[in-house]
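debug: dumping io for the single-chain case to check the tokenizer round-trip. Nothing else runs in this session.
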Amino acid sequence: MNQTAELEAPRAALPKAKHEPFVLPDSARRIRWGRIGLWLAVIGPGLMVMLADTDAGSIITAAQSGAQWGFTMILPQLLLIPILYIVQEITVRLGLVTGKGHGELIREHFGMGWAMLSVITLFIACVGALVTEFAGIAGVAQMFHIPLWASVPAVTALLVLVGLSGSYRRVEKIGLAVGLLELLFLLAAIVARPDLSEMAHGMATFPIGNGSYMFLLAANVGAVIMPWMVFYQQGAVIDKRLGTKHLKLQRWDTKIGAVVTQFIMIAVVIATAVGIHSTSPNAVLNDVQDVSRALTPVLGPTTAVILFGLGMAGAAFLAAIVVSLAGAWGLSEALGIKHSLDLPFKKAKGFYSVYTLAHVGGAIIVLLGIPLVSLMVNVEVMNAVLLPIVLGFLILLERRALPKDYRMTGARKHIAWSLTGITILFGLYTAGVTLLGVIQ
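debug: decoded output
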């Protein structure tokens, strides 16, 4: 059977799936390059969620890390790549094999109470993320002399229209097109011309005894593995109507995305380490304009605004789509109501209402005026605090919801459990440190 025919075959392995099988679009059918056409048709959920992972909050967290700790934050970003892939690969398997969303699986296997706890966790993370996305967009608009009252409502309306377009494929294409602006951060790191020997020295330094370093390290962990990522990618492979035959390609989609998103984070660390840490090692960044101004001596005034501004805008816009969809999917799955971007509004009113209200609520909070950088870093720390709940359910579902043939075994299982276990412990440690700080 050729690849095109294989894609169009019924998804017999998933009798409980709630969607029609994936069908290769006409544009892809016309491509006679075999596997290239297959790739172009199937990839997307992994790249979407990974590019959204490098959102406004993550970029600001990386910028603050580079400004205060220089190149020492590069190594943690590299170490987080396999953890990020392992977490999202489990998510992909759960979605492709069961044909059900994360919230629905938790409800089925652990009950409505645990499902609602998971959704509440998701809601908290989504609200924090959406506020940072809108704050990031507003900061970029102000760099181009567009006032807050004009930029935030306009972007909110555009995001709502994108979600209500009635097509998952359309939303994914728009998201990826805008999200690719993040690659400008890679160019910024190259233009900054870092000293390779200093970079190597920084990567060999790991000051875990410093409380300030550990706080930013926790923020970077929270900036890489976020609760909404699990809900989004599992919902996306279902809404795209993919099945188990696409597991290999979805793994590659996730691997490539994990590497790209972390190299974008590293690029931001490098640019700010060169532009800020080398001259003002204790600099505190208060808003997007501060980061842009700090990079001006290295990148030049125009280049700093264009590269950092457009990269931030693309990251925030894509993440706003992904975060709101994750929240809408998760809540709908837990409550058992219809939830698909391919459904018209009248057939999925609850789903689209949550998506719309999430954007409107985030926009209103930003219009009230909040310090950007401190908010974003604290949101990422909050994500690290929520990790034990999210990853705990993920590991349990991998054992309960999947048939034996699709579960991890042997060394792979032990490595995955160990890495996620370490991440969960780190989240618990962060929760303790954060709570202690609040009490004091």
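debug: round-trip ok. The radius of gyration is 21 Å.
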